[in-house]
Amino acid sequence: MKTVLQRPGRKGRRKEIRTAFAFLFLPVTIYLVWIIGPMLYTFYLSLTDWDMFTAPRFVGLSNFRRLSNDPVFHRSLLNNLKWMAVFITIPIAAGLALAMVLNRKVRGSTFFKVSFFLPMVLSLVVAGLVWSWLYNPAYGLINVLLRTVGLPYLARGWLASANTAMESIIAVGVWRQVGYVMVFYLAGLQSVNQDLVDASRVDGASSWKSFRHVVLPQLAPITTVVIVISIIDSLRVFALVSVMTGGGPHNSSNVLANYVYLTGFQWYQMGYAAAIAVVLFLLASVFIVFYLSRIAKEEDHA
Amino acid sequence: MHNYQLRKRIVVWVVFCMVLILTVVWLTPILVALLTSLRSYDDIMLRGFFAVPEELSFDSYLRAWRQGRMRQYLPNSFMITLPALGATLLLSSLSAYAISRFRFPGRRPIYYMFIFGMMLPLQILMIPVFGLSNSVGLYDTYIGLIAIHTAFFLGFNTFVLKNYMSTVPPQIFDSAHIDGCSELRIWWQIMLPLTLPAFAALATLLFTWIFNDYLWALILIRTGAKMPVTTGLASLQGEFVTDWTVIMAGSLIATVPTLTVFIFLQRYFIEGLTMGSNK
Description:
The structure holds 2 protein chains of 2 kinds. Chain A has 13 helices and 2 strands.
């Protein structure tokens, strides 16, 4: 019973369409001007040479040819893939485990939950600054702690060394992401059929087995969403890198988003920056389209 | 059986301790920031991080507030966040209403366009948005920043609100329609009150997101006096590089608004996060 009781006639139908477009006019116009238009324009700019002061000059695919030989681009791409590899494993495993534990009424579960939500509430700038202080070579907590427990040889300039800068920033990303993933699984667990879980336990399944074969399959839709979101998040990484290292030292912690920013807004190579942005977009759109197709399927069922 | 019980209790305790340790690790950065902000940097440098501080003071907060210009940045953030929040919610309720209630050609493409945009890497928009705001005279103004936030979040909002509105039985609107109620009134007087919970969740979440935005403020605001708290804070880093107590105090000041919202509206915040994913 979800269709209108009496289908409107042709005249009513035309009126419905007119009303719909009247409602859509403002939001769609704004969206086209500020989001969709700029997106398409970036595609065009990626085929040009533009310093922002003179008119863009069409150069065909040469920006993309330049990309293929650009070590900084390769490094940034690799770093984004590193983020991705970490983001689809550690925060998801930790978030799921925590959700499983905290979903029960353990002592202080609200306190625990809030502790893991907290990093999400901080801005990335604040998170970046606080952790930069923790990583401070001389007085930061991490090195002080290492020296105190007798491991002074492990202390180092975490963000100043090309070997550790990227991993140190990714750790901050994980710190924020775990609570985010946990929220999704906590919501997902509400819809897990507890009777099935109980039945499997009565039938003698160990708690691990009933988790693996009864709970986890029911969480599969959430897991898909979480993985897609994690991948897209790992491609969007910008503020943490920008605040903590600016991509250095020697581009060791650069990521695509930051490289776009540096190329465009520090070096005024807008065409080349647009080309990097297009690559970033194409990577992300694989997953966005996948997500959209899922929503489309749901729409069909609705 | 006895053995089994014992083993189970041990497992429960081990899990509990692991969660406890992890929680401590998770809270440590925030506690460190708090402790640092209440000490003097000399004290930390001379006597070490673990020394019991000689005195606690709010001096760093005062310096962050005055010399660090947090007293400017913080109101700026509100001037940007609140109008953007209102505008994007109002506009997206229009689009969500149209998509959920009416059948018209192009309905799906329009809907998918909104969802597509909500997940874009912002870098694909950055350069043209900078150019656009420059050419219409909105560069380095609040309005430019408000415009891009309003526009960008239309995608996510429309998606969430449309899903929520689709759960309202259409008969309610049809009967109102037959009684001669205009669509504008149905939207305003029937649909909006019914979707209030979704608005509450979205508003909480969007407040945090817009307030914490860094990228757009970096691209679109140049004048120091107009910066919101995020880019303002990042600029402190260069200035107070030798005094982390001021930077930590500034960071905590910058967190007060979103933390307050989170504490009082936690339920909505959490709901909002997952609203997009499962109907």
